[in-house]
Amino acid sequence: MSCKGKATVVSVALGLMLGGCGLSLPGSIDSGKSEAAPAFMVGAAAVPSPLPGPACLGGYSTNCGRRAEKEHDPLLATAIAFSNAAGGSFVLVKTTNVGFFAKYKNGEFGAYDVRRRIAQQAGIASDHIFVVSDHSHSAPDTIGIWGGVEDAFMQQHADAAVAAGEQAWMS
Question: How much is the pLDDT for 29?
Answer without folding.
Answer: 43
